[in-house]
Design a protein that fits this description.
single chain; 368 residues; mainly alpha; 15 helices; 66% helix
Amino acid sequence: MKQIISGSGAGGGNLGASGPAVINNFDLIRLFAALQVVYEHVLSHLDVKIPWAEALGQLANLFPGVPIFFVLSGFLVYWAFSKCPEWRRFARNRFLRLYPGLWVSFACTCFLLVGFRVVTPKMFLTRQLLVWVLTQITVFPVYTPDVLRPWGAHNPNGSLWTIVVELQYYMAVPLLHRMLGGRNWAVVWAGLFALSYSGSLALGHLTGVSGTAGKLAAVLLLPYLFYFLMGIGLYKAWPQISPYLVGRGLWWAAAYVGYTVTFSAVLRLYDISYMPSPLGLVGYMIMAAAVLSTAYSAPAFAKSVLHGTDLSYGIYIYHMLVINSLMALNLTGTSRWMAFAIGCTLAMSAISWQFVEHPALRLKSKWR
């Protein structure tokens, strides 16, 4: 059966008239979301103060990449498990999507750390770095020992915190599928959504907490689960809501931009944040509908542009390596290095897709 290959590791099939269609623009949406994250990090870490670049960044920030990734992951990964609710196959597919690319990226990280003389090869035998290596190649790639902090932005690859959240969601999907499998799924969904959003509000008050507790709280699934639940809810309600979404991407995007500009930019009633206020939450709900609507508006467009290539994951796991290298070389502050960072990231992600990620995904059919 034909599958969707997604940056978040999801797969899907043609579920019939009542389910989402296989042909869609998810690859293109993920590419946009990844580039938004890269652009934001390039502007801030490379200290680019060019007016037009900052204005473009403010426009791009209306569509924050991380929430878009989480919503899409909620929709697509839940779809994948619903299509084939066998946890061993599900775990294998998620492993093949995430870990081969992550491990090669980690090898590049180690190479750069040695090349920039942040560490020596012998230092990898010390307790600090052995723990760091173990966390990077397993399920917690956010621990950073002090010896690595002098390099770049003080974290070799800080963007990997979202992978920790994604992995927790993957582990929770079988349970969520069971909990939302009954006729009263909407009631259970609403309860989980309220619980998660309450956790998000609580975490917003703990952002100033230092130490291990604060770091752990910032990568727990619970305060971000409501993003994934938006995607799950859209999937579960797809037969009822698809007539209002399919082919209406521009309308939903305009509604989201209008809402955000009015209540955030003009009236300043909320700030765009990963831990949104109630008004911000409404905005993200509109954004989630806009994302799914765009995925099924002119749905063949992504395939005609990308031809099945998915660079989003590679962009995500390599861009901070490029940025940190430029910072270490003091190559910052100009549009030239901004363009170089984005171009180099795209090149590395293309290599990762061609020689690591895509070959790994092809193993899905061989590891039955």
